[in-house]
Specification:
Strand content: 15-25%
Shape: globular
Number of helices: 5
Distance between the termini: 40 Å
Structural class: alpha/beta
Oligomer: single chain
Length: 166
Amino acid sequence: NQVPKTKNGLGERMVEIQVNPSVEYIPSHDEIEALARVAFQRLLLHTSHDSFGIHFTNDEEIQTLNAQYRGFDKPTDVLSFEADVFDPDEEVTYLGDIVISVETMQKQAEVAKHPLATEMLLLITHGLLHLVGFDHATQEEKDEMWALQTEILTMAGITPNKLPED
């Protein structure tokens, strides 16, 4: 099925999703798109002019990326790679890519005692905030980012039992 192209090049979708073939996980594109619309609205981004990608993978691949790009040779839950590239032909800005370890996501969902989908949407929100420039290097930045993360999730009707510590 080919989706007709619109300004963001993804048809009605603003998110391109990839899953590492070694991972047995099928994310809900509809849930992700709904969250992205809420987040974009709150962040004053344009749903028809902005897009981003998500890659679901395993701990091994995310550990390699974390070591290569952040200098931490250990798995993590989510990484963000900001692009902020404007395509004048399509009139769209590609914000960047979010990489999520499904293995770590599953462990965190179990610890938090909330559904896997809730953890996925929490990690996507966290990654998206990084793509648009938020960080948590200081306590003040963390407080601001966690408050905005909670606000976006609440607006989307998602209530995690626990937020990641960092």
